[in-house]
Amino acid sequence: MALLKWPKPSRNGSVSPEDAAEGRMPLMEHLRELRNRIVVSLLGLVAGIIVGFVFFDPIWDFITAPYCSLEASQILREGECTFAIRGVFEAFLVNLKVAAMFALVVSSPLWLYQVWAFVTPGLYRNEKRYSIIFLAMAIPLFLAGAALAYFVMDKGLAILLGFAPGNAVPLLEMDDYLSYALVMLIIFGISFEMPLLMVFLNVIGVLPHATVARHRRMVIFIMFLFAAIATPSTDPFSMLALALPMVVLFALAEGVMYLRDRRSPADDFSHLSDDEASELPEDESPLDLNTTDPDSAR
């Protein structure tokens, strides 16, 4: 991938439209384009934050629905979900965090397009094709992981709050719950991207299927270990809810890698030692000709 393709400077120092479309721009032009795209992305985020402030109540109701479905959330006020506020500025900061989360999700098509438009001119044709496919698959996978986290949060909270003694009253703070929900959504979403990363590494020739097959058991063990450590609730239900889909996606990714390597097998030198030379082709090369022979030299 060549992000900077240097053109021949013109007499007036300008860049032709053809060169700009193919990514052949001077460094300062690339920096100006990057600045403009960052400004556009930030404007989209600011607009999303304003909308998030205006519609804070329905957004907050949606985020807190897993906790409010538990009986423990209605101990202080029967039939009403309650949260505790410890600091003076906590309510405002929670409003700001919720609006920022909403803006990041809503404006994602805009800032993803800005990133794509900045990188695309420097990509080759086959890189553009692969990147479009993986980008189209990455967003649904992340949303699927976040949706799974949303639907299992109430089970994890119920298990954790169930360990409280009978005379204890749960006073969950707004900021603590928001941090818990945010971590769950991000971890589940990113975890669903790992199999896609494996396929991408296989496509560019970095990770062959044979390597994955040799370490399959270790990879599955690491997935369960990662799920146990990464889930903030530390309950077995959330761990299994994250680990089992990851194993299924890993199996699907391994199947894709197997079919791709079988269709276009690559040279595998993993069985050779570091001191052993690979076999060379037996075809004659022009260098193999006898240069001492005058006829061959001509």
UniProtKB/TrEMBL annotation:
Membrane topology: Multi-pass membrane protein
Top-level taxonomic group: Bacteria
Subcellular location: Cell membrane; Membrane
SUBUNIT field: The Tat system comprises two distinct complexes: a TatABC complex, containing multiple copies of TatA, TatB and TatC subunits, and a separate TatA complex, containing only TatA subunits. Substrates initially bind to the TatABC complex, which probably triggers association of the separate TatA complex to form the active translocon.
Major subcellular location class: membrane
Start-end of Acidic residues biased regions: 275-286
MF terms (GO), sorted A to Z: proton motive force dependent protein transmembrane transporter activity
Protein name: Sec-independent protein translocase protein TatC
A single BP term in Gene Ontology: intracellular protein transmembrane transport
Keywords on record: Cell membrane, Membrane, Protein transport, Translocation, Transmembrane, Transmembrane helix, Transport
